[in-house]
Amino acid sequence: MNTDKLGQLRIESDQKRRPGRATWLIVLGVLVTTAVAIFFAWPRAADSIRVWKGKGDAKMEVASASNGGGDAAANRSPKGAAASTNAPPVNARSDDAVLTTSGYIVNRERIELSPRFLGVVKWIGVRKGDTVTNGQVVVLLDDAEYRARLAEIEGQIAVAKVNIARAGLDHQRAQQLVADKVEMQKSADDARLALKAARAQLTQVEGARKLLHTYLDWCVIKSPINGVVLEKLVDPNELVVPQSFGGTRGPSTALIALADPKDLQVEIDLNESDLPKIFLNQRCRISPEAYLDRKYEGYVAEIAPEANRQKGTLQIKVQIKDPDKFLTPELSAKVEFVREPAPKGR
């Protein structure tokens, strides 16, 4: 009985063998997987460079960290330009620089033209960004009232001249009568004083005429410098005043804002710990952040007499020599402070 059961459980020898095709498929799969892993793990020269593309055509090539940093080179150049592997990093400090910091490009002087009296804008001949010259008419105020008053004053001057002529004749008659013993000396004195009063009245109205001519000149607003219009602050038919009356809906107090584009500075809030490295007339190199490959000479023109207690900084202004169109006010710039001072003949 037991022998029959064991015989039923026995596996025949031809059934113990696996199909040979399945075994070969498993071996082939393992070999392919191993080959793919070796292919991607094997180091190649092209893997040491990664390319990053920014806006436009600019690109930056950086060496991979797997090279240990020995052959790393960062190049920033327009499309088609040869990449320089020896270019220094952007933030690298020159050998003669004692401090490198950043600030903002500003106009040394911002001029806002304001009226000298209450008036209405009749005409404005410039727009934002226009170039103006010294003495160029940029705004006209309405002068109708002053021209009418001038005509009135001209009439008063004519009357005053007639009064002078009449008083002169009266004075001559009075002197003759006194000489003939017909009138007393008092009549001659009265006539002489009347003549002086008439002449004084003429001087008074002539002064009023000069004042009106001054007002008419003030209605013509001219540019005091050669520069560029930074802002147009009013429009025709708008009321303007010489000073603000308060509130947010008051009339405008300025007409246009001007600045000289050839008179630029870099304004820097310098940390107090760096103050020992800075002095007046110190030579500087300026590079706008938008064009770091461009260099401009400058010098420390101003050191503020008072610090900012909250920030722990002191404001420094660096004058830029020979600025050009690449320097735009209110954009940032990098400044390198050099050890030696600027030449005396700056």
Describe the structure in your own words:
By secondary structure, the chain is α+β, with helices and mostly antiparallel strands. Mean pLDDT is 81; it is low at 49-91. It folds into four domains: 1-79, no CATH class; 97-108 and 260-341, Elongation Factor Tu (Ef-tu), domain 3; 111-142 and 219-259, Beta Barrel (OB fold (Dihydrolipoamide Acetyltransferase, E2P)); 143-214, Helix Hairpins (Orthogonal Bundle), CATH 1.10.287. The chain is built from five helices and 17 strands. It is 30% helix and 28% strand. A hairpin with a 7-residue loop joins β14 and β15. Strands 4-13-16-15-14-17 form a six-stranded antiparallel barrel.
CATH top-level class of the largest domain: Mainly Beta
The name of the CATH superfamily of the largest domain reads Efflux pump adaptor protein, beta barrel domain
Count of helical stretches: 5
Order of helices and strands: HHHEEEEEEEEHHEEEEEEEEE
The helix-and-strand class reads alpha+beta
Across the major sheet, the strand order is: 4-13-16-15-14-17
In the CATH hierarchy, the third-tier topology of the largest domain is known as Elongation Factor Tu (Ef-tu), domain 3
Main pleated-sheet profile:
6 strands, antiparallel, barrel
| Total strands | 17
Strand content: 25-35%
- The percent range for helix content is 25-40%
Level-2 CATH architecture of the largest domain: Beta Barrel
- Quickly count the domains: 4
Q: What's the end-to-end separation, in Å? A: 123 Å
**Net shape:** elongated
- Contiguous low-pLDDT stretches (5 residues minimum) are 49-91
Rg (C-alpha, Å)? 45 Å
Mean pLDDT value: 81
